[in-house]
Amino acid sequence: MNQAPNSAVDLAASTVTVGDAPLSIDQVVAVARYRAGVQISEDARIAMRAARSIVDDHARSDRAIYGVSTGFGALATRKIDVESRERLQTGLIRSHAAGSGPEVEAEVVRALMLLRLQTFTTGRTGVRAEVADRYVALLNSDATPVVFEFGSLGCSGDLAPLAHCALAAIGDGEVRDERGIVRPSGEVLAELGFGPLTLAAKEGLALINGTDGMLGMLTLAVHDLNRAVRTADVAAAMSVEALLGTDRVFTADLQAVRPHPGQAASAANLTRLLAGSEIVASHRGEDCSVVQDAYSLRCAPQVAGAVRSTIAHATGIADIELASAVDNPVVLPDGRIESNGNFHGAPVGYVLDFLAIATADLASISERRTDRLLDPSRSNGLPAFLAATPGVDSGLMIAQYTQAAMVSELKRLASPASVDSIPSSAMQEDHVSMGWSAARKLRRAIDALQRVIGIEVMAAARGLDLRAPLAAAPATAAVVAALRAEVAGVGEDRYLSPDIERAVEMVCAGTILSAAEEAVGPLD
């Protein structure tokens, strides 16, 4: 039984067994991002052999079976003679490897290969074990097929991306080897002990007819957003504290009036993160003239909580998809091979777009808090733009411009891809999901979110420095200390971009979150 690792070290060290049970999100991340090893279970090999026997029986007959004895897409009415059926499968892979544009990131390619491999091991595709073994070999040797940005409509599977992987697996494409050098896959496979591979009946179609690319990106997104939303709570707590905001609005009894679980979790995090703050305590008395804080402070748990609910919904869809066998036609246990529509990417495409909306809004409220920190008319006594000498120094003025530019881009990325459909294959495939496009823009959105949060952490840390001699809460003080080990505090203006990039790296690596959690324990 595979155990889901909890840290990057565990993820990298784990070996993922495919075929015993549906993969978890952590296991996909372990293989895709941290290069964990892969192996196929013996039960899965038995299932693959049984399915292959069914396909071979049908392939020797004159029965019309889509993709076995017929052409593909709009050519499904064309009967293929027995002698041409092997050529049909290899030709399919070559013709469908039609991607264009920039290369897709290695972690995405590795994720989609792993998920296609998992589908092979279900015994629903008819792929031989020797084909599956090539995917294992490529993953374990860190040889990544070259896949391009454009080519998937998110229906009939992620056809072009998967075709490029399949082409590499049979020794007829290109891979980046473990050194990052593009080489013919045949050379790399030969070094691994594999020769050229001729695909048998149905195998070409089974290699490409899945939603594995968009699902792989969904699993990576869920993983990253679970960390980002907790880091956003840390940034929000730092801003509330630096802006002399109140923690009273985050109490459990107030949250229980509107009992969304994610909202309660975020509010509880904020309460713990602000506990023990001299800064918060300094204005808690009856003489405090601020009746209530601005929405970007007061409503932080409502927004972050809604983001958590969206992530939870997306996680549920991902778990169902990870337990599915997406192929067309599909091999059934009773010996039938039946056409179906399970390759349609709508379930995944919708949640990818939903996550993009939540991602944009979480970044938007973060940027609003940063802007408030920089504005002396709203920051409760902090210097303009958190500069050492306002006027001579501009401080973090343009860092907020950078945030604003990214938030504007995030709003554009929140426009759904899944509402679009362009018919293809001579109108046989007349409604498609565009789920791959939804996944690609979500990846850009998550990158921008992490950058926006990094800038808020920088600004809030300066604000806390400037509240001295009042001490920050233990948790937020720990974050400031971690940041100061890499990024200097208030001083004369300096080249700002490297500071921003280092803060962003600390958000992406989990360093900011870890610093807070070391002080108050794991956040929800």
TrEMBL record:
Primary site of residence: cytoplasm
Catalytic activity as recorded in UniProt: L-histidine = trans-urocanate + NH4(+)
EC number: 4.3.1.3
Enzyme class: lyase
Key words, A-Z: Histidine metabolism, Lyase
Pathway(s) where this gene product acts: Amino-acid degradation; L-histidine degradation into L-glutamate; N-formimidoyl-L-glutamate from L-histidine: step 1/3
UniProt similarity note: Belongs to the PAL/histidase family.
Protein name in the entry: Histidine ammonia-lyase
Species name: Ruania alba
